[in-house]
Amino acid sequence: MTVLLPGATLGVMGGGQLGRMFVHAAQRMGYFTAVLDPDPASPAGLVSHYHIRTDYLDEQGLAQLIQRSAAITTEFENVPAPALVTLGAHRPVSPSAESVAIAQDRAQEKAHFQRCGVPVAPHAVIETAEQLAAVGDSLLPGILKTSRLGYDGKGQARVTTREELASAWEALRRVPCVLEKLLPLAAECSVIVARSHDGRLVNLPPQWNLHRDGILAVTQAHADCLPAATARQAIEATRAIAEGLRYVGVLCVEFFLLQDGSLVVNEMAPRPHNSGHYSLDACDVSQFELQVRALAGLPLPQPRQHSPAIMLNLLGDLWLVGGETETTPPWDRVLALAGIHLHLYGKLSARRGRKMGHLTVTASTAEAVRGTALQAAELLGIPAF
Ligand code: ATP
Ligand code: MG
Fold first, then answer.
1. Does residue 58 sit in the same domain as residue 168?
2. Which of 144, 57, 73, 146 is nearest to 105 (CA)?
3. Other beta carbons less than 10 A from residue 282's beta carbon
4. CA 215 to centroid of ligand 1, rounded, Å
5. In testing the pocket of ligand 1, which one of 140, 266, 274 has its CB within 8 Å of the most ligand atoms?
6. Which of 181, 205, 230 is a domain's end point?
7. Do 251 and 172 have their domain in common?
8. Cα of 262 to ligand 1 centre, how many Å?
9. What is the DSSP pairing of strand 355-362 with strand 340-344?
10. In CATH, what number is assigned to the domain containing residue 332?
11. In the predicted structure, residue 156 carries a pLDDT above the cut 80
């Protein structure tokens, strides 16, 4: 592949906050950007040189993106695979349509993990009434998850009995699902890697993640956030998963650390991930710069984390305290704390559970970063962790 030097235009499918941070990273390095997203007020569209406002499968929109861009990436997982196939016929596209298609389907994704020798939760694929009836009792209690189009815990139901399982599948309109055994989690973690066309792979240090109501709430990234052996194992598993896909671009793999100390892979995201946002402020190369570099065919340096970091997600709930009218959180008081990096995505209205921004805290020690993060959380009404 030819290297695309700054001055070229990089395209991105999707205009959410991940696209916005990709655009920022690309522009900082002197690239032009083109975003395809139907929403006139999309976070990435608002800051891109070009914003193509069409549906993801619109032929004219895709043709414009091809015409504008020297190479194209994606920022959300559910971008229709056929659109990537169209783009890929004309321009370098990373990650590939094949990798994205596997990540979009929980059943295929789990099969890929198993092929790579990485343990997954005990599970069953449920696409027919026969498969539903054949589910073993050992999978209960479990979580029924739609195979496709889930995010932030949407499209999931916890079930304890066979009756609950059957009615949950009805409620999900009998779409293809995966039933996973409910596992005793001690913690969750994730690893972000970037892999180049020529197979070089670099990683961010593994991060510890706390989810609330199925949505990422807190990420901690510092030397003692995970046992060293777990961190090494998670990196090796992520490497195997990326290499098994001959992946090009940034990939995040999420894991469960079980109470017995074993590691189980949960899912992967074929793009930068919410749990890697701290890298913007705490590493010498962020996950978004890695995405730019991988897409442009530039060298991938191994990132170096220079500060312990904690990231707090800022959900729409913070704007809706004490009712449904929007109030602005006390940013001035939060920004008075040392080592606070505020990122707001420019979304025009707050909704409960909507990711409006994030806050990264950096400091010189893990204790200091935790102290400041807890103070910021208290000022914002985010529960302690
Ligand atoms: P996202 O894509 O935003 O990460 P998602 O909708 O794909 O979310 P999952 O990652 O499958 O959802 O699940 C969300 C959270 O629910 C997990 O991070 C974990 O806290 C919990 N969870 C999911 N599966 C299991 C399981 N088998 N056992 C125990 N807890 C689970
Ligand atoms: Mg998840």
1. no
2. 146
3. 28
4. 8
5. 266
6. 181
7. no
8. 17
9. antiparallel
10. 3.30.470.20
11. yes
